[in-house]
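cron nightly-structures :: item 1 of 1
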Amino acid sequence: MTPEPAVEPPPAEPWIKPTLNIRARYEYGSIDSPALRSSTAFTVRERVGLVTRDWYGFSALVEGEFLQAIDDSYDSGPGAATSPHDPSRTPILDPENNELNQAYIQYKGFDTVFKAGRQRIILDNAAFIGNVGWRQNEQTYDAFSITNTSIEDLTLFYAYANRANRIFGSDAMGPLRNFAGDIHLFNASYSGFGDSTITGYAYLMDFDETAANAGYVSNNTYGISGETPIGPVTLYGEIAYQTDTSSSPIFKPDDAWYAHFKASAKAGTHTFTLGYEYLDADFVTPLATVHAFNGFADAFIGTRIGLTRNPGISDLYLTHATPLPFWGLNFNQTVHVFGDNGSGFDYGWEYDAVLAKKFSENFLAIAKFAYFDSEGPTGNPLVINPAPFDTTRFSIELNYTF
């Protein structure tokens, strides 16, 4: 009888492992304003970190973020503290930067994850709380967070943060560098209704230390969202109510509303989504990943964050997504029609297109195009078009993750 060969035990996981994420991107931007020239940016961003092995539930991560501008023919931000800085060019918000991106201690046990330190926080679809992952420099939070899943199908999340470290880097000043104050984030999501999910949240943001736009970005937001399939269609709905805070300016109204509804359906390999998103006048989302909403041209980015006054936004959009039958490409295109919070769609329209190719688990390439056609001034003295100029943006990038 031949003895069976001995089975080698798997190698022990190392106590400390490196992490690496590299993104090289070429981006072109043009705002058709007589005051701005077009911009080109070729930037390379590295995130380099170390993560420890779990030890009795405890682990830690530290990660640095570094950005170099090889082609710096652009304006990286609205302040001279960021570089490259050429106010005659179209903004591309990727300043050169060396900073601590994340550094936290984590404990996992008893169906709960505790995390303390500088960390990434993304809640739901990032319409209110996100990491602004599209830009090269990430938004992270100096926070303590708790995620609990003790009750089946229920996920509870709470975080207290005193600072949101924004995308303009460590050389930026004031509210460009961070939104600081008291930030309480509550989120509860329940998925025990078959294939349906319902989520409730309360996001309380009193930025009394760095009062961007005279405190206009401070807000208390309460909302509920739900998603459910009905036959071949998946429906999504969300409603939120926002109030001002003690640090809000006097001119800001006491309350404002938000709504987002969409229906998605598949036809073979094609997915179609018809949606409508509404932001009442003075409704702001300062911690959102705003690039994911209202078009990739970012024509309404300052309005939605609250760095300029929001006169209201209505966004009616149709999205088509499909894998292409060659080269393993995935294609996504969207048409938007924009207006204020009234009945007229008089801000303009936009066409967006994205091609993505995943070469392996480590390499991902993305090409993105956006064209916003502005209607110019609205002609209504009570409503000013926050995006009065046509905007074109194009980018191509390669991502490597280890």
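cron nightly-structures :: done
Residues 21 and 337 are 35 Å apart (CA to CA).
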